[in-house]
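Q: Predict the assembly, please.
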Amino acid sequence: MSSVSNDPANQDVEGDQSGRLIPQPNGRPRPLSPHLQVWRWHVTMLASILNRISGGALSVGALLVGLWLLALAFGPDAYATFVSLAGSPLGLLVWFGLSAALFYHLAGGIRHLIWDAGSGLTPKSANTLSTLSIVFGVVATLAFWAFLFASGRVTL
Amino acid sequence: MSKTKAYIKGVKVSERHGAGDWIAERLSSLILVPLTIWGLWSAASLSGGGYDGALAWFSSWLNSGLLIVTLLVSIWHMNMGLTVIVDDYIHKPASRTLILGAIGLLCLLLAAASVFFIVRLALGSAPLPAGFGA
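A: Predicted assembly structure:
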């Protein structure tokens, strides 16, 4: 391949069949970064994606906490309605998911703080930290709910 | 802006706002680590306690105060996180401005409403809406 035809600046976005090019605001075509499916899966990548997904889920969780406060402030009847929904099997499934997101996001956040401090950045330790955060998310969530059910605070 | 150092310990200091965003994200994460653990512990102790249990919990200003701090820092952190996601996936400037504006507005509304409800619960105010202003 000649270097001239390989230069994205010399290629036309309209005539591009690969879908690799995108026009910049200045009109020059630039190559896109490779899409998700061409990457081999790494645990660091999975951990990063999970951190973003759990963060998004927790935004919904923040709204639900706001709803909980609203129900409390509106008195016993409103609160009874809230508890009947939040304590239903579907409601408990939502809280289970949110607690998993919170435990994982907590571990993922600590992992990022360790990385930001400049530690654990070799491939091996980065993988270990990523695996640890995922394992912590699963184990802590299961332990949390085992405690809630065993102590009788939550019943199905 | 006042004159700031170009280098701290041999590391280049951002000339504009880049480092501020980065520091705010890390600072909020750091604050949220202990608050999240406290929040999970509180959630476990509140569950199954019913309306009266919750009111008793809120009557402690330590609980109410920590919950206000936790929610405000969380909403701040959440706003920064959602902004990064929108910046990554929404490329049209007009759409991005619109979505970021809506998210910001929602965060402000959530923060204001949460603090309002928590303060009322801590004061032991009569249930809304009849007790409005009580």
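Chain A touches chain B through 36 residues (CB under 8 Å). DSSP finds five helices and two strands in chain A.
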